[in-house]
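Possible regression after last week's pipeline update?

I re-ran a chain I had predicted before the update to compare outputs. Posting the input and the new output here so someone can diff against the archived version. Not blocking, just want to make sure nothing changed silently.
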Amino acid sequence: MHIAGRITPADVPRLCEELRRLLRDDGPGDGPPCDVYCDVGGLAQVNLATVDALARLHLTARRHGSRLRLMDPGPELLALLNLVGLPGLADAA
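New output (post-update):
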């Protein structure tokens, strides 16, 4: 999965549906949990909408027995996740 540009609150449902579709098509099914790699290196702006989107994507992955792993999280994203008390979302690949 690749997220780039600027995330707005309106993007969150679409991103979660994209992840659900990915997990349904390529997910573990009855097998062991899989890691979903999410490339966030192309984010143009990091804000609370970004954190909300990543938190919801994390929950979506967990509901499907998978784990969201961030690829290329920048220092601004890592600092914001720490600031809001969600450093576990920055489980980088």
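Follow-up from reviewer: compared with the archived run. The chain has a mean pLDDT of 88. Marking as no regression found.
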